[in-house]
Amino acid sequence: MKEKCPLCERISHTDAQYCSFHDVAYAEIKSKFLDWNIAFGNAGWERYLERIIGLKETGVWAREVARLELRRSKNNSQASFKDT
Amino acid sequence: MTEDQRIVVIAEKPDSARKIAEALSRTKESEDKNSGIIDVPDAFDGNHYLVFSAIGHLYELSDPQMNRGIFPIYDIGWFPKGQASRNNFSRDKSRLQYLFRTRIACISRISQGIQKFVNACDFDIEGETIGFNTLEYACHGKGRSSFRAKFSTLTSEDIRQAFASLAPASTKFAKAGQMRHFADYLWGINLSRALTSAANRSKKTQRFVNMSIGRVQGPSLAFVVDREIERMVHVPIPTWEVTCELKKNDFRFEARYRDSPIRIETKATSVYESTLASKFARVLSVDRSLVKLPPRYPFNLGDLQRECYRFFHFPPSVTLAIAERLYLQALISYPRTDSQKLPQRIRPDSILRRLTSLPPIGTLVEELISNPKKRSVPWQGPRDDPAHPAIFPTGQTPKRSLSDAEQKVFEIIVRRFCNTFAPDAILEKTVGVFDVSMNEFQAEGTRVLEVGWMKFYTYSSLIPDPLNVAPSTGEELEVDSAAIDLKFNPQPSRYSEGSLLAKMEDEKIGTKATRAETISTLIKRLYVKKTKNELVPTTNGLSMIETLRNHSPDILSTEMTRNLETKLELLQSSESTEQEIAEQILSSLRSSMKNLRKVENLDWTDLTLSSESTNLKGSLGSCPTCKTGKLQLIRSVKTGKRFIGCSNFAKGCRTSSPAPPRGQIRSTGRLCPSCGWPNIFFTFSRSTKRIESCANFFCSSRKKHESVIPTNSRR
């Protein structure tokens, strides 16, 4: 069954969790994480996402993906904290 | 029976026909405005000419079946313009059809018995096709036995010279032109019908939508969409720039850290802190170099369109229209050219002499003529066009006052022409390197030593920024201040009309004459919106490209379009045959159609169709009955009349009201206190005041406006 993109409800044709547009944005966020780590030292995934969400230069789709990823990451860390 | 000695001349437009007749005539010529024929009984060469004016294309390709539901179609033919159209309800269209019909009938009647025909349309592929079709279909098959008059300006001198050296017509240009029309028509009509059919099967469409795509339109839209996607997914990278202000004898200038931009925060901070702490900078080196800047190349159409966009913000289509008007007034040469060369046969020196009497820049031209460094041969660019030279002024002064926009385009052409004779501009570039506590900083400056061509072509974007101090090596300068800037690389900029035109030129898709029109079509079809000179793709544009890329990517391939352009050029030089090209067109079309058939079966649920794609352009307000729909101005496909209807018609809402048959209708944003329908503005003409009234024809509040608002029902 075809999955729907959690951000825009468009069908994701590939195995990715997002639609084709948001999937490209997600790949871009992951690839630029390395540059940010070099620039600021080990910035951390959540800190990185928070910073790119606040920048006016960040593209709309990239910001949408970053927001969702940040929420997911925070939920995951809360869940693991509860588990421990 | 004596043979009719008269000669029929086919001109492309009424204005050019008039210019040609004026140039040929020794005395006074007489024009019959109904038939579009100008009689020149006493021509300069003793002949009797009948100059016939076409109105652009008199014949167009059409599908004889006229059924939009049928595709693919391959059986098409040339028909008198407007004859094979179903949309006959428009008054303007039927008037045009009448005009085309009468023109064809007149030339057909007059050409009987006449032996000699001259094609004097613009000397390019379109002109060749217009002339050939008129001669072939209206003048009883005279396309192959006619003569060709070749000229680049509409001055009497050029036209008479062209008529004195008439050449037998060559059909290869006309055949290439016809083949281009075939390719564009087959490609456009079949794919557009397939897309329309597929889109209307989609569950997301509530009303009939028209989709369109073309051979050049598809790849051009893909450029705009791809750039937008790049912007949407952009994630900036941080970089730092450290600068310091150096001081010598109360004169301050800025120097930049040499290895900028810095990509690591700790390094940037350490450079900044050490610069801030240091009091002096030592001059390591000062390099001065002379740079010779040659003049700008003569204008071809693409360059002219780009420069007019850059300096005056004229869209390329507007620049082309203005340039054509200037050509028809014999002020400039033929603008649809690719050439950047000014050959000696145009006698550039005599043009320069004539330009001295041109009011705004006459004195500058006189100065140029008397300049000992003036070039004897104008500066040439690499591009060439076998049909026409680069755009140049004819040296004639305008006979009527030019509009502001025409004046600007005319002046830039004159200045660019003069610039090609001017000497090089000479600049001095200075690069100073400074040591500030073991960190190297750099400052740059440029000074104009000799203005050269920049005096004539003042549109240059070069702004000299001289490094006025002359520091010498080893000298110590004071460090006044230091600054650190964190920067993020911005999103790539959107295409403007000018930059999209340049991209299409680089990718070699479309022709110089059609590129501007393709961009206008993208805007007209609502695939692209123009916001502050930027081209922004709409939801439809994005969906269209995504769907086509997923299911039939060859439609968007620049490779296919470029190959076809090359083949058409080969046809012009007889290195390829019509058969080969037709086969290529049909095979690529068939494969795309096959893919689109698959798309049709997929039901296209991913094609998001917004109201932008419907035939409606704006909402007049919310529907008072269903509350969720929008009231919109709709033209009935059956009757051609306008009415106001609800966008939820497909869901069962039948709210509607008759609308005035003419005039503008705009939303006011207010509701009628009597019936709750939205209030709207009616404007009937520029001279009349707009009237605010209820959109509901049957509302009691409309009674007071009844005498002024014309209605369909009253008609």
Topology:
The complex is a heterodimer of chains A (84) and B (715).
Chain A: E1 3-4, E2 11-12, H1 20-40, H2 45-53, H3 60-83
Antiparallel strand pairs in A: 1-2
Helix pairs in contact in A: 1-3, 2-3
Chain B: E1 4-11, H1 14-24, E2 30-32, E3 37-40, E4 49-53, E5 59-62, E6 77-80, H2 91-110, E7 114-119, H3 125-138, E8 147-148, H4 156-164, E9 167-168, H5 171-201, H6 217-232, E10 238-248, E11 251-257, H7 265-277, E12 280-293, H8 301-312, H9 316-328, H10 348-355, H11 362-370, H12 404-419, E13 425-436, E14 439-450, E15 476-488, H13 497-506, H14 515-524, E16 528-531, E17 534-537, H15 539-551, H16 558-572, H17 578-601, E18 619-622, E19 630-635, E20 642-646, E21 656-658, E22 664-671, E23 678-683, E24 691-694
Parallel strand pairs in B: 1-4, 1-7, 7-8
Antiparallel strand pairs in B: 2-3, 3-4, 5-6, 8-9, 10-11, 10-15, 11-14, 12-13, 12-15, 13-14, 16-17, 18-19, 19-20, 20-21, 22-23, 23-24
Question: Could you walk me through the main structural features you see in this protein, from its secondary elements to its overall organization?
Answer:
The complex is a heterodimer of chains A (84) and B (715). Chain A is mostly helical and 84 residues long. Chain A has one domain (1-76). Helix content of chain A is 64%, strand content 5%. Chain A has helices at 20-40, 45-53, 60-83, and strands at residues 3-4, 11-12. In chain A, strands 1-2 form a two-stranded antiparallel sheet. Chain A is globular and about 40 Å long. The termini of chain A are far apart. Chain B is built from 17 helices and 24 strands. In chain B, the strands form 6 sheets. A 7-stranded mixed beta sheet of chain B has the order 2-3-4-1-7-8-9. Chain B has a 6-stranded antiparallel barrel with strand order 10-11-14-13-12-15. In chain B, strands 18-19-20-21 form a 4-stranded antiparallel beta sheet, with no helix packed on it. In chain B, helix 5 (171-201) packs parallel to helix 17, helix 9 packs across helix 12 and helix 16 runs antiparallel to helix 17 (578-601). The longest helix of chain B has 31 residues, at 171-201. Chain B is globular, with a radius of gyration of 32 Å. The two termini of chain B are 56 Å apart. Chain A binds chain B through residues 10-11, 13, 20-21, 24-25, 28-29, 32, 35-36, 38-41, 52, 55, 57-62, and chain B through 229, 231-239, 263-266, 488-491, 546, 550, 605-606, 608.
